[in-house]
Predict the structure.
Amino acid sequence: MRSRSKRERWAENAELECVHEPDLSEVAAGRAYLRGRWAAVHFGDEAPLTLELGCGQGLFAVDLARRFPDRSYVGVDVKGHRFWRGARLATDEGVRNAAFLRARIQWLDRFFGPGEVSEIWVTFSDPQLADKRGTKRLVSPFYLRLYQHVLAMGGVVRVKTDSPEFAGHALEAAREAGMEVVDHSGNVHGEPEGRFDAELTRSLAFITAFEERWIKEGRRIHYVELRKVVEVAPADLAEAQRMLQGPTERVSPRVPGGLPASAD
Ligand SMILES: C[S@@+](CC[C@H](N)C(=O)[O-])C[C@H]1O[C@@H](n2cnc3c(N)ncnc32)[C@H](O)[C@@H]1O
């Protein structure tokens, strides 16, 4: 595939049916986008919905969509030029159960309704270890509460990371946010055969673009799986929304949709 500039990718994204690039200044102002309507409006069926948050190139989301045609997948990233690659591939291959959303994860509840999602992957997110407030680290208690809000009861969050600290933060945050810890591995690719069920083994075997870099540097890959077992309390959800969507979440006119280009 010929390489494209960012501008060329943005222009192509605008033509691809699987790409959603809502006006993010409107979303920041409180407007919902497709919330509660992904099945009816985009996918046209009631298949369970999986999100990949911070999907980057989006190739993992496309791989999952190919393997599980009875599920729907939405890759979410603020950098549309990155997921252009996955969106192009899904379009060219006719993979209709994969879509991409250009958005900030802070506003997840404006894109997905309560219980609309059954599974969330968080793949190789920046560990943000200096983030004391928990407004940047995608597994802080604030984020987990936002995820619980959009997850159906029993739905899962699957975290893959090269950072032992990030994995540790996810486990701690799960306790604070009332999520059940289902599994934790500190060396995904070194586990004995049969350690995970067949589906998960195959999903974990997919190496993302950032994962490839970390493996080359000799880092071990961690996996954390959390399950929603209680509804998030309204006061906790309101606090998470205030912390993540407060006045520091500014909107800049520098890129289409009004968000700063550098979000990771
Ligand atoms: C380190 S990359 C990992 C990409 C991909 N998951 C992989 O493993 O190759 C992190 C990605 O998350 C996106 N990202 C970081 N913070 C985000 C946020 N708050 N909202 C949306 N996307 C975000 C970045 O734009 C970037 O593409």
User: Anything to note?
Assistant: The CA atoms of residues 50 and 119 lie 5 Å apart. The beta strands are 19-20, 49-53, 72-77, 98-102, 117-123, 151-161, 179-185, 222-228.
